[in-house]
């Protein structure tokens, strides 16, 4: 047998990709303590903590408006399945955290969707879970966004469509309110 045949089967590792954005990141450099170069491996029983206090948080944000511990991410295996997931918990007493528009107060927690946007203050973090099989550890891979993750999209003004499904061919006049027409009068 060759050494290739005797080698252990390679496991894929669950990786949490986190893309950070803050409008003042160029001037304030609040992400300078984060390692954007390589993946970081954490034990499955470790909690990934994000906040201002570098002695308590493995992911430190250099900003006095960030709580000492802002939030945590816990890796776990779902009950009666082989699926792995992350749970996010807001640990800030002063700042609410939103995950895809779900607002979390202090000590509230939810399962992290496989792709979501985490917001607090002016911070925007795109979180994407890359599934894996390893159960003893997981990885994080940090990225820095050049542009806002959340973009306000201006929808064009749409004229209402009558119940008969036919749009009026004339534009609504400024200052005049639309009048209701009985369908039998058409």
UniProtKB/TrEMBL annotation:
Domain FHA residue range list: 49-121
Gene encoding the protein: Tifa
PANTHER family: TRAF-INTERACTING PROTEIN WITH FHA DOMAIN-CONTAINING PROTEIN A, TRAF-INTERACTING PROTEIN WITH FHA DOMAIN-CONTAINING PROTEIN A FAMILY MEMBER
Protein name in UniProt: TRAF-interacting protein with FHA domain-containing protein A
Chain intervals for the UniProt region annotation (Disordered): 166-186
Compartments (UniProt record): Cytoplasm
Organism the protein comes from: Loxia curvirostra (Red crossbill)
Superkingdom in the source lineage: Eukaryota
Gene Ontology cellular component list: cytoplasm
């Amino acid at each position: 047998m060759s050494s290739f045949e005797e080698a252990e089967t390679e496991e894929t590792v669950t990786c949490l990709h986190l893309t950070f954005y803050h409008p003042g990141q160029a001037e304030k450099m609040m992400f300078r303590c984060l390692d954007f170069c390589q993946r970081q491996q954490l034990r499955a029983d470790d909690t990934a903590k994000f906040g201002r206090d570098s002695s308590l948080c493995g992911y430190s944000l250099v900003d006095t408006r960030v709580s000492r511990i802002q939030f945590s991410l816990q890796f776990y295996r779902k009950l009666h399945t082989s699926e792995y997931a992350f749970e996010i918990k807001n640990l800030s007493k002063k700042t609410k955290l939103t995950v895809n528009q779900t607002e979390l107060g202090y000590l509230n927690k939810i399962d992290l969707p496989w792709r979501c946007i985490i917001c607090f203050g002016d911070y925007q973090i795109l979180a994407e879970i890359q599934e894996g099989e390893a159960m003893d550890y997981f990885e994080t891979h940090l990225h820095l966004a050049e542009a806002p993750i959340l973009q306000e999209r201006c929808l064009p003004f749409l004229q209402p469509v009558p119940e008969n499904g036919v749009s009026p061919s004339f534009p609504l006049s400024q200052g005049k309110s639309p009048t209701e027409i009985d369908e039998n009068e058409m």
